[in-house]
Amino acid sequence: SAFLLFQVQPLIAKFILPWFGGGPAVWSVSMLFFQTILVAGYAYAHLLVRYLDLRRQAMVHLSLLVVALAQMPVEPMTAFESIADSDPTLQIIVLLARTIGIPFFVLSATAPLIQSWVSRTGVMRNPYWLYSLSNVASLTALLSYPFLVEPNLTRQTQILTWSVLFSCFLAFCAYCAFWTGFRSRATETEPEGQRETSDSETPGLYLWIFWLALPAAAVTTLLGVTNQMTRDLTSVPFLWVVPLCAYLLSYIVCFAGERWYHRGLFIPAMVVSIAVINFLPIKEAESIPVAVGVYTVALFVLCMVCHGELFRIRPAAGRLTGFYLMIAVGGALGSALVAVVMPLLVDRYLELQIGMDATAVLAAILLVRDARARYSLRLSRLAPVALLVTLVGIGGMLGSSAREADSDIVYQKRNFYGVLTVGRDHVGTPRESLWLRDGTTYHGVQMTSPQYRTIPGAYYAPSSGVALALEFSDDKPARRIGMVGLGVGSIASYGKEGDSFRISEIKSILLPKIKMMPFRHPWGS
Fold first, then answer.
1. 46, 217, 432, 498: which could join 478 in a potential S-S bond, CB 3.0 to 4.6 Å?
2. At what angle do helices 2-16 and 25-51 cross, to 10 degrees?
3. pLDDT in tens, 167-181
């Protein structure tokens, strides 16, 4: 179930990526959907375990497995291929729900439900290591997709293969449910820790908050790093999978046992990682592969802190499903912050900084909590001071990241498709110019001086291939020219009387409506 769960994520996202502009937001919205359905699956498992006996749990789950089989194969419907006139977030979510909603829901519920069954039937007293095992399968799925599945199989073959494997999974899961229901009366036992758990040992509110906040910080950092890579380089499954592998690997290591996460190692490494990410933009690195590797390692360290601290405050096995439910809710909140909230509230990318800073603050609070419990009164009094210093430093770092390096910004806007910025350089001099930037890529420059304003700059300059092609066809009357892509508007300066230009740009909804004025050909005869 874990293998199929993480194999279908890049598969479906790759399938619909060109339908919605090919930008990094397609993956962010897809992750929001996956995290939300994961919450629903964990909630379903939690409610089954809490309110039904094993026999009824098995019967209900068998019924759901039959319903999931009806949604095979999981090929996206072409009716959704047309792009919405505005933000397509809701359109993507509806498409994914109608394509893989029920199968993904069933797969999401499997891990906590099976772990509860093996614990309550006496097969296994400590089922937490199964969570680590399932993440090994998830990691295998992610690594196999860009290196084995995507290069060798067509999209339709991928869909068909996944659907066949899902049908096999249904058979195995149905057997587990049948065995659990059949053996329930003879084998059902209380999970480890259930007998000794009293009302006084019910997890406090602070634990529930940390069960939410730690996974939310990890997912926010994950998507922040993914956005940073895909907007500075390109949006491809490989750059989705690499950060997600680091994220899953941290789960595998932390939930394999307490001996793998050491605060003395990972807390200092977290500080170094935050500094590296803040001061090493990918596009400014001498080697892009090295920069991607550094970002991935830094993400792994930050996720190790989140998930290591999460494992340290885990409950007894009797509260396993509730614990996993809160982890899923926290992940969904992190996805919603990146995919929905941030584009509405800010005009630039800040989620990576927010995720890193939240990780540092949560770790500092937990360190203060443990210091007060373990050390002498004098030493414990230093802990709040250390926390205050951490908060001030984190706040300063976030504020520094939020400030725009370019002081002369004319216009800036962010939405589903990214961040567009119009700025002005060399103000008040003959070299004064306006430029257009998408993320970190400059797509066009125009001089403001009347003498030079019709001469295009950047990669549509007079020496470019586009300029030479248009010059070659200069003697043709009434040319009809179509242009696709950000920044091509500057090509209109090569037009002459009678020419017709049609400009198509998916990100045009970011900018104010501009009335196109006729140009005179700037180059002569």
1. 498
2. 150
3. 999 999 888 888 887
